[in-house]
Amino acid sequence: MLGGTGPAGQGVAARLAAVGHDVVLGSRDPERAAGIVGELRARWGEPLKTLVPGTNPEAAKSDVVVIATVADAAIETARSVADQLDGKVVISMANGLEKHGREFRCVVPEEGSIAEAIQAAAPGAKVVAALQHVPAAALADLDGELASDVLVAGDDDVARSLVLDLVDSISGLRGFDAGSLENARGIEAVAAPLLTINLRHQGEATLRITGAGERRR
Amino acid sequence: MLGGTGPAGQGVAARLAAVGHDVVLGSRDPERAAGIVGELRARWGEPLKTLVPGTNPEAAKSDVVVIATVADAAIETARSVADQLDGKVVISMANGLEKHGREFRCVVPEEGSIAEAIQAAAPGAKVVAALQHVPAAALADLDGELASDVLVAGDDDVARSLVLDLVDSISGLRGFDAGSLENARGIEAVAAPLLTINLRHQGEATLRITGAGERRR
């Protein structure tokens, strides 16, 4: 996890460690990463034994790299370790959002989506968009059951399948194959209407896909 | 309904008529509209007694105008009756999509979304984006139960509320307030990943929103 100290990064890191993956929670500030990992392990104990803190370059040594910073920092973070990302699966989970009164609106980089901008910043990476809409609070509560669907888009078939399997490995999440990286545009842009619903309706909206079954292989 | 002879237009027209609204199914080709209305009434009978055929300009006399053409024609159709749309609620339901191999990708007009392009073509209209993702086949089967959620975006509060109520009036559809018309960008763009899921998974994907309740008023 690059920039994994925020709520969504912590949540994804904890969920992945809890199902047995080795996870490095990286940060520009490794002391902060160590503090967060200490808190998470104090809270959840044994299930997070495979979670360790590190710098972003240390985290970027992993086979699969998740860019978990806030949207503003995602592209720059990818660029800062671009050489290390060559040939690796890189998960982009950020949404560009701005709040305007009682709504959110999307903020789109020139490339069409943050995932595509990360791809441009790290051309050798196999970038896959995923996990944009999973509520951070629900992720971080390991005792709670997740029930959320994840649209997964990326140009490299093997990388996209690996991320779909990684998503499916987290109980309560289901991955759906949404096509090539260009389709990250829709995945990211729909975050604004979805989060606006949270401001204008009771409760907390979660995206679900009904009617779709197994991947055709 | 302008350009209501296609599958989605027929379905929305039939559903709205079946719950008692007076509906004019309009087309550039009024004979085709008459043929379609004849078929629909022959099939479903009495529930469609408030459905009549007409030209697009005749349909545009209604209080609420739905632009139901294919995406390529939506903006031009709005422009062709723009004077008649002044002050009216105009529903944009089109998605710009192109099929590339085993996926769909979105095609976005300069304005950011088809709904915003319709607004630019008919500046006096109160354009509301809605009904983008409801499966046409399910809409058209009046005996079948719908189970689909509809994101609704528009700048005019009264118009948006009216469309939310109109969506809610169709059994099995639920309207969610997704904010101003700019958020049509995400609503339209997510159609490409959603429809790609249909090509790559078993079954037919439908967008649902869980966890969100009543509108806050």
Q: What is the element string of chain A, with H for helices and E for strands?
A: HEHEHEHEEEHEHEHEHHE
Which strand-content bin applies to the residues of chain A? 25-35%
Oligomerization: homodimer
The most extensive contact between chains is: A-B, 47 and 47 residues
Spatial sequence of strands, sheet with the most strands of chain A = 3-4-7-8-9
Q: State the secondary-structure class of chain A.
A: alpha/beta
Rounded to an integer in angstroms, the radius of gyration calculated over CA atoms of chain A is 16 Å
| Stretches with pLDDT under 50, minimum 5 residues of chain A | none
The averaged pLDDT of chain A comes out at: 96
Number of helices of chain A: 9
Task: Write down how many β-strands of chain A occur, each being a DSSP E stretch of 2 or more residues.
Answer: 10
Tell the overall outline of chain A.
Answer: globular
- What can be said about the biggest beta sheet of chain A? 5 strands, mixed
The proportion of residues forming helix of chain A, as a percent range, comes to: 25-40%
Describe the structure.
The structure is a homodimer of 217-residue chains. With 217 residues, the first copy, chain A, is of the alpha/beta class. Chain A has 9 helices and 10 strands. In chain A, the strands form 3 sheets. Chain A has a 5-stranded mixed sheet, sandwiched between helices. In chain A, strands 1-2 form a two-stranded parallel sheet. In chain A, helix 4 packs parallel to helix 5. The mean pLDDT of chain A is 96. Strand 10 of chain A pairs antiparallel with strand 10 of chain B, so a sheet runs across the interface.
